Amino acid sequence: MATNKRAPRPGFVLDVDKSTPPIVFHHGEGFRLEKLPAGRTRILYPADPLVGLPDPDGAIRDALLHPIDCDPLPALLRPGMKLTIAFDDISLPLPPMRKPDIRQRVIEAVLDMAAEAGVDDVHLIAALALHRRMTEAELRHAVGDRVYDAFAPHGTLYNHDAEDPENMVLLGVTKHGEEVEMNRRAAESDLLVYVNINLVAMDGGHKSTATGLSGYRALRHHHNVKTMLESKSFMDQHKSELHHSNWRQGAIIKDAGIKIFQIETTVNNNTFGHDGPLSMLQKREWEWTARDRASFVTMHNGLKIMKTSHKRKIFNSWQAPYDLTSVQAGEIEAVHKITTENVYKQQLVPVQGQTDILTMGLPYICPYNVNSVMNPILVMCLGLGYFFNLYRGKPVVREGGVLIMTHPTPWEFHPVHHPSYIDFFEQVLSETTNPLEIEANYEKKFAEDEWYRHLYRTSYAYHGVHPFYMWYWGSHALAHLGQVIIVGGDTRAVRRLGFRPASTMQDAFEMASDVVGRQPTITHLHNPPILMADVS
Amino acid sequence: MISATLAGKRIAVTGSTGFLGTALVERLLRCVPDAELVLLVRPGRRGAEDRVRREVLKNDCFDRLRRELGGQTPFDALTALRIRGIAGDVSVDGLALDDAGRALLASCDIVIHSAATVSFDSPLDTAVEVNLLGPVRIAAELQRLGVTPHLVAVSTCYVAGSRRGEAPEELVEDSPFFVDVDWRREVDAARRARQDAEAQSRSPEMLVEFRNKARHELGAAGTPLLAEKTESLRVQSVTDRMVDSGRARASSLGFPDAYAYTKAVGERALCETRGNVPVSIVRPSIIESAWSEPVPGWIRGFRMAEPVIVSYARGLLSEFPGVPEGIIDVIPVDHVVAAIIAVAARGPLPDPKPDVIQVASGSVNPLRYRRLVDLVRDWFTEHPIYDDRGQAIAVPDWSFPGRGRVQRQLDRAKTSIDRAEKVLSALPLRGRQAALHATLEEKRSLVERAEGYVKLYGAYAECEALYGLDRLLALWDTLDADDHASFAFDPRIIDWDHYVRNVHLPTVVIQARVKTTPGAKLGPSRSERLRKQVLDPSRQLAAFDLENTLIASNVVASYSWIATRRLPREDRARFVMKTLLEAPGLLALDKRDRSDFLRHFYRRYDHAPIAQMEADAAEMFSDVILAKSFPAAIRRVREHRALGHRTVLITGALDFLVRPLAPLFDDIIAAELGQRNDGTYDGMMTSVPPTGETRAYALEAYAKSHGISLAESVAYADSSSDLPMLEAVGFPVAVNPETRLASIARKRGWLIEDFHKAPGAPGRLLPIAPPRRGAIA
């Protein structure tokens, strides 16, 4: 529960002047303090965390009993029916949240109602699409021990397997020729309940089922370079071809007669806590107390001398004290409209006009390295994919501008989670970094590779094609930007990504001057906690 | 006119595949148009004629003649007409001639015997058979055939022995310094020495020593390979012993080495046994590259001075013994050839004693050791050799120390390298560190080579004899101007500065194939070239070891993981302690014999439930095998597959533990445990596990049943216990090799790959499974 007494303040745009203290940049499992040029720099700060719902379980129950454009959940449940509950996987929220996880709260509420209605045939599926399977510990964290122990031993709580030909069904093809497929159990259920955690505006809607329970055959129609180039941004569903395609697929799912009860939830911005060791990270630097300063300096210096593996362990153990800010259930599109408004309420920060240079500090985590390693490809995806696209209207940086990110970008990979990434990095990026060439020449080979398929299905590996999607995620930014610089990264790894390595922010600004001149305007995205720029 | 005198003559030549012999044949062919040549060569596998074509006529010595004739075809026509090759062997009584060969030899007017084992470190008996008995056998055979052609025997100036002062052109027995020994006894003694050395090398103590040495070098490579290595060490020791015997016998009689000694006694024996065969003896000094014929600088093979010169230019020989004002008696090969032909043309002297002619330079046109060293140093300073990194190598200054001091220096270097090597080999090194060991070994072999040069040639550099040339110069004076032009052998015309700088050294550098241009090496590196061969589509099979080749784990780690998987928390600590305590014993057993170790260790799976093992193995696949895998190695397996090669995993690990790797391979050959009726394993292996030589057999059997040629196959492994498998294939690859395998791979020029765990891979100190709480369906 939130402990701050003030009413939460909205996001803020600071114009940097001489009195502005050095700014904290996330830098993987560490931080950098950077003094930004006065007079031409602005910093986008996220809003304070919204106050969470006082009674989350009550709110969830209420949403299930009073859904939007839909009968109450109990009315949809009957004995002898097939019920499937699908839920978001390990990629949400980021970082993982403290127990109890929202999924656990929602699933328990749904299961209570199902039990009351006498529903026996219930399956729970982690809707991970082509992500890696969740481990026992991760599933337990998401759904809670009670649910896990009740279902997993009977084989009714499991990970979606998009490469199990027996258990995927083709539901149809959209007018645009996009195939739509789905997990057989979900598709053949009398009711499919989907439990979302909508961390950013991209999440949820038809994308939950059309992507989460789908496979390569269907995903390739929107997880491709062309779609991503036409999604400006993919965080803005109205201007996102990614969403249009998912919505078309959603219509096919609906036409196939699959009854979906969509539950969407939003969380606040309380990523690092109002107090505790990381709390200063969601404060504005000039408001730091002496204690914030002291603990930051201690942490900063401690991290500098620590081994990466230890740092990784420490950061991976951080669980965000997120509060539930809204929960809505019922018909997908109606629900999603409200959810998006609630996400925007927390994250949207109005910004006037574009900038020449966009700077960002990349943190230790992205959707695909929970309990894992942030490899160079994920660095690219987080910076040029996610953070770059956290805009509505126009990109924060002008076309032909420069993106400067800070991240150590180590040449490191998790051998179990990211085997195809390793080969992608060694064999594909060493040849070309052009998304279209990569897509044309390599995607099919990786996507249909038996070994990657085997690892995706039996081990804990992302699908063979996943690194390609990471690269496509950045294609809009790649096409838009004049230059990308990574500060403090492993030189070889940064070059392999096709970016330019700089050892200091000062050097990076010098290098950028070749592209944007000597007096460029600079905007820093002070993220996370997550903010989305509303650029006019 | 020499060519006129020899026209229509039939001349037999022995030793035509050698340096001097080849030059001799070329000159006779080119400058004595009407002579017919009979070349006596050991037939080899394809017969004498073939050997003559391939080993004599193909040599670049004949390029000039080929050119002058207008190409290969007329050259072939000429040689077909004038050259006959006959099978023969001077190291066998009767020369191993067939009837046709005998008839042809009997029809010769002149026999030039230039066959010899010139190697300065020949085993004593070999030198005796060839150098001492060779001329005797030829004379005997000629007598048996009842013919008396002019026998020109090529000997060496060094029959005069290691001594200072004049050494005139006289028979050895006429020299006051010759210690007369009975040549027959020398022959008997040499043969007996061989028998003694053989017998000694077979004594139980020696055999144990060889076996230990082989084990030290190869590790647990399996009985057949160890046996093979042991035997090769034994044979080597006999050879070494015979070389030592030769050197010792030679020096006991005042000769620099076995070559000079056997040649000297051989001359003596020839004079004694020649009967009525007229004999002339030609004694060259140190024969080096040609002064002008067929082309300046022509040389065949790497001769005596070249290795020393190249080692010096490479900066390896920082000192070499010798007397600075001493004379290095060098004579270009074309002078020797011309002198031999002139002697042959002149015919035997009426004198009842054989005639001796020395071909040398020291007494009339001396090349002093200091001058030679200066010339060589200046030349290499101007034209340096470059190291692997493309840096010019600076040549050292020699201070002409005594042989003892150089020897001591080298001994010291060797001792310190030996020590470092001992320390390194005791450490459990892999990959790059192990390569360090191999480098050290290379350094030692360099020091050993330098030591060899000092031992071999030191005596020559210190020799201060002056070889008389009165008869040679007298012969020269009898020749007319034409002969002087075509058969020049007057050593006084040699300009040593020009010879060393412009004729000899450029040739040496080319012959040694050293790097003569600055800058880093262009083009693909050695590893890249080897890798390309390994990944050639025409390969048929790629076999992979598992542990430390594909993953950084072992059977003990897998077992601990499996064993702790379902262990309650409180028992885990006890298990860890127990395993840690057992570890040294297990390691020692593994080192001694891998299959015994596996047999012993797998007993632990007794009563393990089969179904549970399957489930746990599936989890272990992620947590141990993949987490500790080498991504580059897995990529390599997949590359082979993509190229259409069959991929096989051959491992001593248990089949059910490696089954999750199945999609990577076409086949897996692994150890299997017997099963009980109650659904548990019985802890006994159903067959010999595929380790050591069994692995090679398994691979051979596999290849056979799939119609695959192992010569076209690749094998990847990390340890010398995998040697049998690596040796069985045409393209072995050492992956992160441990010390022994690293040096073996380096010596044999195998591809060495450094595969490592993914940087960033989760590290765990002990191979313990994470606590398991419930099943994931």
Automatic annotation (TrEMBL), chain A:
<dbReference type="Pfam" id="PF09861">
    <property type="entry name" value="Lar_N"/>
</dbReference>
<dbReference type="InterPro" id="IPR018657">
    <property type="entry name" value="LarA-like_N"/>
</dbReference>
<dbReference type="InterPro" id="IPR048068">
    <property type="entry name" value="LarA-like"/>
</dbReference>
<feature type="domain" description="LarA-like N-terminal">
    <location>
        <begin position="50"/>
        <end position="233"/>
    </location>
</feature>
<dbReference type="GO" id="GO:0050043">
    <property type="term" value="F:lactate racemase activity"/>
</dbReference>
<dbReference type="InterPro" id="IPR043166">
    <property type="entry name" value="LarA-like_C"/>
</dbReference>
<protein>
    <submittedName>
        <fullName>Unannotated protein</fullName>
    </submittedName>
</protein>
TrEMBL record, chain B:
<dbReference type="InterPro" id="IPR023214">
    <property type="entry name" value="HAD_sf"/>
</dbReference>
<dbReference type="GO" id="GO:0010345">
    <property type="term" value="P:suberin biosynthetic process"/>
</dbReference>
<dbReference type="GO" id="GO:0080019">
    <property type="term" value="F:alcohol-forming very long-chain fatty acyl-CoA reductase activity"/>
</dbReference>
<dbReference type="Pfam" id="PF12710">
    <property type="entry name" value="HAD"/>
</dbReference>
<dbReference type="InterPro" id="IPR026055">
    <property type="entry name" value="FAR"/>
</dbReference>
<dbReference type="InterPro" id="IPR036412">
    <property type="entry name" value="HAD-like_sf"/>
</dbReference>
<protein>
    <submittedName>
        <fullName>Unannotated protein</fullName>
    </submittedName>
</protein>
<dbReference type="Pfam" id="PF07993">
    <property type="entry name" value="NAD_binding_4"/>
</dbReference>
<dbReference type="InterPro" id="IPR036291">
    <property type="entry name" value="NAD(P)-bd_dom_sf"/>
</dbReference>
<feature type="domain" description="Thioester reductase (TE)">
    <location>
        <begin position="13"/>
        <end position="340"/>
    </location>
</feature>
<dbReference type="GO" id="GO:0035336">
    <property type="term" value="P:long-chain fatty-acyl-CoA metabolic process"/>
</dbReference>
<dbReference type="InterPro" id="IPR006385">
    <property type="entry name" value="HAD_hydro_SerB1"/>
</dbReference>
<dbReference type="InterPro" id="IPR013120">
    <property type="entry name" value="FAR_NAD-bd"/>
</dbReference>
